[in-house]
Predict the 3D structure of the following.
Amino acid sequence: MSDQPNLPFSSPVMPKMYDGDKVISFRCHKAIGCFNACCKSIDITLTPYDIIRLKNRLGVTSAQFLREYTVPFEFEKDGIAGVKLKSVEGGSACRFMTDEGCSVYEDRPTACRYYPVALVSMRKQDEYTDSDSYALVEESHCLGHQEDRSLTIDAYREEQGVKEYDELSRGWRQLILKKKSSGATIGKPSLRSRRFFFMACYDIDTFREFVRSDGFHSSFALPTAEYEALLVDEVALLQFGYRLLRQVMFGEESIEVVADARNAVQLKQQANYIAEEEAARPKVWHDYDPALEPVDL
């Protein structure tokens, strides 16, 4: 059994999979007859690194970006959340589309960089690591496939600058795959764990404040240099968030817990303290389900 997050296909039939050495014919440019057509009806799942690039491009906080530019969804019922790019008001077009093309092109999302290729990450239940394959998306409106230019999928990925994006969101994909393949063995994540996942993956600015908090310091012991790096380097903070989530959700300890915090009573007190700190600040994930009440991690 394999699990695949974010397949760009509505059919339950698995599309044909290719390796990176598959040769494709494709070119998109402003003079092509279908220019901007793929941006007029979007369904774009954002990765954590996509959000960092876009919120910095727009000069807003991650919380503001999530509220104004995204909509949430669940990868599975009562499961962990993803976010999609919000289309224009009353329509399906990308709000970054202009007559000249993409207004955020240098920081465009992973899915846009990949098109017309789709990344399919899979992880079998009895395997620890995930594997990547690729599918080709051929939509009737797209004339790019008729262009006289051939290159491998790997070369196309290099050209589109997608390798950096893939690497920096690999931990996120692995968390989703691990949750899906673990299934009933770990049970349904608690409401608090799901909100914590949302914060650590998507709301990087609020997650930084969580790492600054007294509650975090009283629970986890980090070397000073590593801790200071987390406060100034968003990429390092994102990667740390994946580690912390693996520890919180799956018990894979890689971050030292303060000795006294291993006492169950103290852990509960610290969880409640952190909840009180969080309640004092506006929370993006509260916006998505205001009925949720704090529960233990």
